[in-house]
Amino acid sequence: MNIRRRAREVDVTVISGLSGAGRSEAAKAFEDLGWFVIDNLPPQLIQKMMSLVFAPGSEISRVALVIDARGGTFFKEAEKALERLRRDVCNFRLLFLEASDELLVRRFDATRRRHPLAAEDRVEVGIQRERELMTSLRDGADLIIDTSQLSVRKLRAKIAASFEQGTPSEGLRITVISFGYKFGLPLDSDMVFDVRFLPNPHWVDELRPLHGLDHPVRDYVLEQEGTNDFIVRTKDIFALLLPGFQKEGRHYLTIGVGCTGGRHRSVVLAEEIGNVIREQGLSVKVIHRDIEREPAKA
Fold first, then answer.
1. What are the residue ranges spanned by the domains of the chain?
2. What CATH class is the domain 3-170?
């Protein structure tokens, strides 16, 4: 088996993004999924390392490289090395992690760490420098995850949904996320459905403490006027859109389904949308971002 053939068979994912946005946790998640993770490898060594991976006899089939923005010249060299990888590797993906400025500042304050690009300045200055430096990398990402509203567990679940099995060549990987508008939109969503047009189970006393995975809430939502029409029209929308995304070579699609608190209507209909997508023979992961939040008091 020659190196060129091996390059067609090995999965290579680059993990990058803003400092404090979760690169280290993402790397741990990839390790738990069985990937061979290489953290902060000097760019001059990326090609040498990959030559060893692609060499005949190598048993490594999935490699994740963690790249950060420490050092401007260093980072530019890394970008060039990644472009060569994207050209040479069939199953190449770039994962970019980001978060809001406010949350990144809070994370740095909590750990009392200095921002790598603001040794003598405020953290906010370093964040802006890093955003500017990494613009081209973000623009070329195959998957962007905003971790502002994600716990470590939910970040790991999102990564598992996209990377735990298979390669991009096996089709479109779809994630459906239910959420509450009061807690903010999932910023990495490619499309969002607002289901607040339906009556809210929160105002039914016996349903308030339950959530959308409980049968009484599910039955209540599905019995409402307008729910069936929504599901039928959703089928029509995805029958049109999903084949188009596949033809365009899209690897990932994130669909948000939102209601007020993210516990009732959005959960029920996210599950229904997941079923609609499965009926088309596609892989889908359904995540309920805000289902564990305490219901508001009446």
1. 3-170, 175-288
2. alpha beta
